[in-house]
Design goal:
- By secondary structure, this protein is mainly α.
- The protein has 2 domains: 99 residues, Rna Polymerase Sigma Factor, Chain: A (Orthogonal Bundle), CATH 1.10.1740.10; 97 residues, Winged helix-like DNA-binding domain superfamily/Winged helix DNA-binding domain (Arc Repressor Mutant, subunit A), CATH 1.10.10.
- It has 11 helices and no strands.
- Helix 3 packs antiparallel against helix 4, helix 3 crosses helix 5 and helix 6 packs across helix 10.
- The longest helix has 25 residues.
- The radius of gyration is 19 Å and the shape is globular.
- The protein starts with a helix and ends with a helix.
Length: 219
């Protein structure tokens, strides 16, 4: 009990934790405020992770449904965002597992975007040196980096999204993904190497900034 009370006091300054405590007390308006604060972020997160806008909206709703169902037993043992994305990680894992069980499912690249049809093909051409060097505009840079991230393994992509898009610390990612700090560092290190390999031709010709810089433009 003392540990629980200490944890509650530690996170009491988090405004989202305070809102969730109001939700626990039956305040419907507080729940609506949390949805307003996090819905678009969750949809974007799931879209980058799984690639489907429609599915991303459904999964975001599933996260909030789980939050609401857990309201009466909620205890502030972490920042609200950490707790929320831990739920999102479980929801995503279930969606990925369900998708892998459907033999009719095939992964498809996007049909359109700033880089035209099948941008993943263009990315692969670039990595092999087949694409002529030219300066990309910002929209193409964002699309290129997004596709590079989507080409990562699901767990690497999850770690990158939490770190670079959501600004989570290694400790928070460790809690969300339920892995060790060393495993988080390893995932991010491998992700950086994979991204560098695909995007190196542009680095060499100065046609595209490093992926970390491009991500700072809030993809």
């Amino acid at each position: 009990m003392l540990a629980s009370e200490s944890s509650a006091r530690r996170y009491a300054l988090d405004p989202d934790v305070r809102l969730m405590l109001e939700v626990r007390g039956g305040n419907a308006a507080a729940f609506e405020e949390l949805v307003a604060r996090y819905q678009s972020r969750l949809v974007t997160f799931f879209r980058h992770l799984l690639g489907s806008r429609e599915q991303s909206e459904d999964l975001a709703q599933e996260v909030f449904l789980r939050v609401y169902r857990a309201r009466e037993t909620y205890q502030p043992g972490a920042k609200f965002s950490t707790w929320l994305y831990k739920i999102a990680n479980h929801v995503a894992a279930n969606a990925i597992r369900d998708r892998s069980r459907r033999p009719e499912f095939t992964l498809q690249t996007r049909d359109s975007g700033p880089m035209g049809a099948r941008p993943l093909d263009l990315m692969l051409q670039a990595s092999s040196g087949q694409m002529p060097s030219r300066q990309l505009d910002k929209a193409e840079v964002r699309e290129f980096v997004r596709m590079a991230i989507e080409a990562l393994s699901e767990r690497q992509r999850m770690a990158v999204l939490l770190c670079k898009f959501e600004g989570m610390t290694y400790a928070e990612i460790s809690e969300i993904m339920e892995i060790s700090l060393q495993a988080v560092k390893s995932l991010l290190s491998r992700a950086r190497e994979n991204l560098r390999e695909v995007m190196q031709p542009y680095f060499e010709h100065g046609s595209i900034p490093a992926w970390e810089e491009a991500n700072d433009d809030k993809l």
